[in-house]
Amino acid sequence: MKILMVCLGNICRSPLAHGVMQALVETEGLDWVIDSAGTGGWHVGEAPDRRAIAVARRFGVDISGQRAQQLHPRHLDDYDHVLVMDRSNLRHVLAMAQTPEQRARIRLFLDDQEVPDPYYDDGMFEPVYRLVETRCNALLQLWK
Ligand code: 4NP
Question: Could you report the average pLDDT of every consecutive run of 10 residues in the chain (144 residues)?
């Protein structure tokens, strides 16, 4: 199973989803590949936002070694599931898809809900972390 988490900058939401899912599959001993990417390229090569690193660390997950990358069309072939954080991401990623097979792999991480962007609101990092953790646990139960 290969899962790619996608947001706008790849420094806040998708690194959290990446890190939490990675920690869960390691605990379960599953042979899954988890990664993340951003639709935008502004932060390529950077570590996650320090607030995302801090909230994850508080919950026992280390995301400090991640580096941002920009989503590339080949990702849509390389992953079984491309899970996007909000509807704006969804539009951008669907626009990149060129085949029905690629389109079928792309969906909202929360199914019918968006993960709010915490970038401009320090107080949102913990609620976002909790949302992400709950959903990652549910996905693990669903797909393992
Ligand atoms: P993310 O948050 O998409 O969850 O990584 C953002 C990070 C950076 C920017 C916007 C959102 N930005 O505009 O640089």
Answer: 98 99 98 98 98 98 98 98 98 98 98 97 98 98 96
The enclosing domain of 32 has a CATH number of 3.40.50.2300
- CB neighbour list of residue 44: distance below 8 Å, 6 or more residues apart: 10, 38, 68, 69, 70
For 87, the domain range is 2-143
DSSP structure class, residue 70: B
Q: What is the pLDDT of residues 117-141, one digit of tens each?
A: 999 999 999 999 999 999 999 999 9
Q: How many DSSP H helices and E strands does the chain contain?
A: 6, 4
Q: State in Å: Cα 144 to ligand 1 middle.
A: 30
Ligand 1 center to residue 124 CA distance, Å? 13
Q: Residue 38: enclosing H or E segment and its boundaries? A: strand 33-38
Distance 98 CA to ligand 1 centre (A): 25
Q: Catalytic site residues?
A: 7, 13, 117
Among protein residues, the one whose CA lies closest to atom 9 of ligand 1:
9
Return the ∠ at Cα 140 (arms to 18 and 38), rounded to 5°.
25
